[in-house]
Structures are given as C-alpha cells and as structure tokens.
C-alpha cells in the first residue's frame, strides 16, 4: 500500500521513524551535515506488512528555470530501509506517484539532486540529467550547487536543458 501524506500530518511515530531512516542513510555525509534543508510538504510511503518499506519526500516550490518560474516537485530522501532493499520498492513508489506530482499537485517538473551512483537508477525511471548553474539558499547566503541535477518532465511539458536554475530557497 502506498500513501501520500502531508508532511505536517505525519504522526510523531512515523515522523521519527522516517528521520531515523534519513539519518542512517545520509547522516554521515558531510554535505548533508553542513547544510540547512527545506522541510518537505509531502511524504509518499509504501508499506509492506504494516512497516515502512520505502519512502520519499517532496518540497513544492516555484523554481526559476532560465528566468521563468515553474512549480516544481523537489524530490528528496528516496530511502528504502536495508531489510526491504532489492525488491524494487523505490522504483515502484516513484512510478506509482509520478502522475500525482503532475496532476494532483500541479507541478510542471520534478527536480532532484543526487549522487553519481544514483544516476542510472533515476534515468531508468525517466529522469534526465541536466547541467545548469544551480543556486540555493543557506542562512549564510546564496550558494552554488556543484553536483548532479536531474529533471522529470510531465507529458505536457517539453524536455528542457536549462542553463540556470534557482531553487528560490533552501535545498531539499
């Protein structure tokens, strides 16, 4: 079963469980430790036998792409707890919720920031790598992101190869 939940409506127990998963997956990464991150707007969770088998978060934001604003689904923390890995659950949840992002949430694009090792995974799901200059905010000021940026286009939106993206806020 896959559920979409407003992040602010997560039960304290679910929020704590997801935070523990996030910390286990990314808590050791210096880039993650040294930055302030946006709070998600939505969480998508796949349950298996009543337990969280995989999940991801979405930050909804008007992002500037080559000077034009688009409502974007900022995808982050796609995590499958170790005991559920290798069963295709992350692919399943991303495919199953893709149209929700575009149709129900009204986003024009999906946007994620990811490590090199994850490029093939997201590419198989229809995401494509772009090479823009990408800016995001931090309490210390505006920052330049220097790693992988991927987009997912809705059926109504063309594939684009932006030169510049401004997240207009904290990264996700």
From TrEMBL:
Gene3D superfamilies: 3.40.630.30
Residues in the signal sequence: none
Record-annotated N-acetyltransferase domain positions: 5-155
Protein name per the record: GNAT family N-acetyltransferase
Organism: Pontibacter aydingkolensis
Pfam families to which the protein is assigned, alphabetical: Acetyltransf_9 (PF13527)
CDD domains on file: NAT_SF
